[in-house]
């Protein structure tokens, strides 16, 4: 029974990923607003109802890894190493993401195309703003739990806002240079340097908050 359930869950994950991959391919070719859920269902060889079983909205299809994006900073903070401040944990995770060419900070080869699609759609721009707010909220919740803060204590929210603003600024600088025609390989070293300066400034502002574990 357990093996059967495991196989069923794996097939569900594979179906979900296939639908999301097909959808992104169509979005890149036709544009987000010009692609319908029916188009996606036909291309993925599933019914429209099946698409909606996995994704509530078309925006969810585009941002199919929204939960990971929203929770990523909070998870880094919650799982930081013993004696490691949140700034140093985030700095380490940022450089690891670049080393692994992971998408979680938005600094990857395909980021330019992704950004252009978002900017071309009011619905996607709205969802992106919503995700930034969710990311701040999730990080603030983690910080409040880490410090056992009172619900009326604004400090976790202040710190979360600064952290998210920095990561947005770093990815924004990368996108600015990418759109200006510079290559990923050329941009990467200077983005690392700029990010370290940003983390240094952040650390000078919030210090070791919360106290290292």
TrEMBL record:
Ranges of residues in domain HTH tetR-type: 13-73
Keywords for this protein: DNA-binding, Transcription, Transcription regulation
One Pfam short name: TetR_C_14
Keyword Aminoacyl-tRNA synthetase: no
The entry's DNA-binding region: 36-55
Name of the protein: TetR/AcrR family transcriptional regulator
């Amino acid at each position: 029974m357990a093996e059967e359930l495991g196989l069923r869950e794996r097939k569900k994950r594979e179906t979900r990923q296939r639908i999301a991959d097909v959808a992104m391919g169509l979005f890149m070719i036709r544009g987000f607003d010009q692609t319908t859920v029916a188009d996606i269902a036909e291309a993925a060889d599933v019914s429209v109802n099946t698409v909606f079983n996995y994704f509530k909205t078309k925006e969810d299809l585009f941002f199919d890894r929204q939960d990971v994006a929203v929770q990523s900073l909070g998870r880094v903070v919650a799982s930081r190493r013993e004696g490691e401040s949140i700034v140093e944990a985030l700095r380490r995770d940022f450089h690891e993401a670049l080393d692994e060419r992971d998408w979680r900070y938005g600094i990857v080869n395909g980021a330019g195309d992704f950004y252009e699609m978002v900017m071309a759609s009011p619905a996607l721009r709205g969802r992106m703003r919503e995700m930034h707010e969710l990311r701040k909220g999730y990080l603030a919740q983690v910080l409040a739990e880490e410090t056992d803060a009172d619900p009326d204590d604004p400090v976790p929210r202040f710190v979360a806002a600064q952290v998210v603003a920095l990561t947005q600024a770093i990815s924004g600088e990368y996108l600015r240079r990418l759109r200006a025609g510079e290559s990923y390989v050329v941009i990467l070293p200077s983005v690392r340097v700029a990010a370290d300066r940003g983390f240094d400034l952040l650390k000078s502002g919030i210090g070791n908050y919360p106290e290292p574990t």
